[in-house]
Amino acid sequence: MTDKSDSRRKQEEFQALAFCHLNALYSTALRMTRNPYDAEDLVQDVYVRAYRFFHRFKRDTNFKAWIFKILTNTYINQYRKKVSRPHHIELEKIEQTYTEKRNDTHARFIESFREQKYESLFDDEITRALAALPNDFRLVVMLADIESFSYKEIAQVIGCPLGTVMSRLSRGRKQLQFHLRDYALKEGFIAKHE
Amino acid sequence: MKKKNDNVYQLITAYIDGELSPEQMKEVEQLLSETPEYHEHYLAEKRTKRLIKENAPVLQAPAQLRNRIRRQIARSGYRPSFWELVQGMFDYRPAATGFAFAVIAFFVLLPAYEMISRSAESLMQKSDSTAPGAKYDELTGEIICLDCDIFTTHRNTPQAASYAEHDPVIHHPGLRADDGAIWTILQNPSEEQGHYTRALLQKRAILSGTVFENSRYIHVDGYKVL
């Protein structure tokens, strides 16, 4: 039987490989969810899932790309669940209008508090410009320019062909260029006449 | 034209990221030197990439998150796959594991296989017809000779006369069920049904077997005299 030391060895191997990407995963999750609490939950889910399926990870492949793929898959699944949730509440609203109203206000308050916290964490032009991009473009730009993944790795992470990665990246950067023009001027990346 | 431009922009993007083959790189470099618009785009995109790379903050994950994950992982423990478990067992105690598997195969898998094959066989026997309305059932009533019954019931009709002369040795057995319905017992030359049902004439019995409700036939499987 797989003995305890073997299990501990695997646990240590996983932690050594996985925890050096924690900040990168957390930052990406935060930019995806735009909410620090959701980002923490998402990252925790990613680690638990990655650990559960660690035996499937091929040792000669890129661990960072593998765990980022789990991140995007988990995010998509959770996001889908979240999107379908309001319909469920709508049905219940018929019976509990007043309770719902009170809860709604409460939820809105918490949501705005969380957004404020998110804004305070990322109080910069780059994050605001990234946030203005459509989800698909933002993810590809983040993976390429912040996390320095190759096109092939990005294609694996998001499960798209290389051509799609290239086109999303090109269009995403073009939109960012537009949003960041003032910032680039202020920081001296471009001259005023450009 | 727009599509061509899009393709060139994508090539420029890949050129900036160093994702092109040497031939494609030469092609892009030529385009950049020949077309000022593309060159301008190249410079602007390169700048945007640098801007993001150098200025996008990477946040420190909260310390409690790292601890939470550690605890969660320690709690969940490592879950090896089934094959990893089997492999581990063979590595640890090969002889004992082999013996254990042999015992499992002998006492669990073999009887289970036999049981499944037996029940499949009996199912096939019981539902030996796919005729509509056929099912396995029990009928209670009196065993009669169908020919004698027709003769006594309709003795005054010309048709009934033909049954009067039938050989008593080959009484044709049937069942008058308690609800008054007359059932014909299927005669199969390879079976002994005709014999034992003839021995039961005039007796009440429970017959079990495949019942063809639409045509009122029963293929007798077993019987019990009441």
Short overview:
Chain A has ten helices and no strands.
What does this structure look like?
The complex is a heterodimer of chains A (194) and B (226). Chain A is mainly alpha-helical and 194 residues long. Chain A is built from 10 helices and no strands. Chain A has helices at 4-18, 22-33, 36-52, 63-93, 97-121, 125-131, 135-146, 151-158, 162-179, 181-186. The radius of gyration of chain A is 20 Å and the shape is globular. The model of chain A is unreliable at 87-91 (pLDDT under 50). Chain B has 226 residues and is of the alpha+beta class. Helix content of chain B is 57%, strand content 17%. Chain B has helices at 2-16, 22-34, 36-55, 63-76, 82-92, 94-126, 146-153, 158-164, 193-199; strands spanning 134-145, 173-177, 182-185, 204-212, 217-225. In chain B, helix 5 (82-92) packs across helix 6 (94-126). The longest helix of chain B has 33 residues, at 94-126. Chain B starts with a helix and ends with a strand. Chains A and B meet through helix 1, helix 2, helix 3, helix 6 and helix 7 of A and helix 1, helix 3, helix 4 and helix 5 of B.
